[in-house]
Design a protein that fits this description.
The chain is built from nine helices and 14 strands. With 299 residues, it is of the alpha+beta class. It has a three-stranded mixed sheet. A three-stranded antiparallel sheet has the order 5-4-14. It has a three-stranded antiparallel sheet with strand order 7-12-11. Helix 2 crosses helix 5. The longest helix is centred in the N-terminal third of the chain and has 21 residues. The protein is globular.
Length: 299
């Protein structure tokens, strides 16, 4: 009960918090519909509830206030971008979904309370960040910019196909608790786990020859790899083995594969852990936003 009260406190406090001065050109709808992919249902929430869940999906509540503000503003901008550019019915009829590749990851109040037992201690800090973020976003060419956020990088972020989404070296991200994930599986398990992506394939006699032809980004993110001659994506490999990112290395030892991923999330845009380190060094939310999205303007 105490944990659930923490979310209520966040929402109560934020309505007394003043955001940035001036009326923003774009605003999120007063009521947002959000498709929860894991539950296949749509919920209706306020922008404040949405941004609270987005922040807590990638940040510890103990993160520095300026980092939380920057992350929240980036999530606000990405939501505005998604709403303005979505095709009809793209999010199962909702305004947004909780898939980070398309919108932003989102934690429900119940999930956030379970994830962070001390959340109530940071209710006011989160509320202030949300109060700032709901009226702040990055703009490019007169429209909301596509401003993705992820937990931590592999050490270098990837280019995102936009002028303001350039690679950025973030060596300090390796200190994050979510930086690395490892999965070791027998070869037969790997074959069965990947069948949904490859169908029936003829695998070489040597297990060491099963994975070939890796294609990677300059940052080391795995784009595609051949499994017995069938192409699979880094995202499919991440999903199949429950890894945290697509910066995946594959090592064969006997009859086993060890897959290791570095970083957590999409590796494009803002690293929430990187923002935390920058905030601890004295940078403001605005400075953090300008560093991660160079060429876009804060509105």
């Amino acid at each position: 009960m105490k944990r659930a009260v923490a979310i209520v406190l966040v929402l109560m406090i934020m309505f007394s918090v003043t955001g940035c001065s001036g009326e923003p050109r774009c605003r999120l709808p007063e009521r947002l519909s959000l498709y929860i992919s894991g539950e296949r249902r749509i919920v209706t929430i306020t922008p404040e509830e949405y941004l609270t869940g987005c922040i807590l999906a990638v940040c510890d509540p103990s993160f520095q206030p300026e980092a939380l503000k920057a992350v929240g503003a980036a999530c606000c901008g990405k939501a505005l971008y998604a709403i303005q550019n979505a095709q009809a019915g793209e999010f199962m009829g909702a305004d947004l979904n909780d898939a980070p590749a398309e919108c932003s990851a989102w934690l429900s109040p119940e999930a956030a309370a379970a994830e962070y037992p001390d959340l109530d201690e940071y209710a006011e800090r989160i509320a202030q960040a949300v109060g700032y973020a709901v009226d702040t976003y990055m703009e490019y060419d007169g429209a909301p910019a596509f401003t993705p956020v992820f937990r931590c990088s592999s050490g270098v972020s990837d280019a995102g196909g936009m002028p303001y989404l350039a690679p950025l070296e973030l060596p300090g991200d390796s200190a994050d608790k979510w930086y690395s994930s490892v999965c070791t599986v027998p070869s037969e398990y790997a074959r069965k786990a990947l069948r949904k992506y490859t169908g029936s394939v003829v695998l070489p006699p040597k297990v060491s020859d099963w994975f070939t032809g890796e294609v990677r980004t300059p940052a080391g993110t795995l784009v595609t790899v051949l499994f017995g001659g069938a192409e699979i994506t880094g995202s499919q490999l991440q999903e199949a083995f429950g890894l945290r990112s697509c910066a995946i290395s594959i090592i064969v030892s006997g009859d086993e594969f060890t897959l290791t991923s570095l970083g957590c999330g999409g590796n494009i845009g803002m690293s929430a852990y990187g923002a935390e380190r920058m905030a601890r060094s004295g940078m403001s939310a605005e400075e953090i936003l300008e560093l991660f999205y160079p060429g876009a303007n804060i509105w």
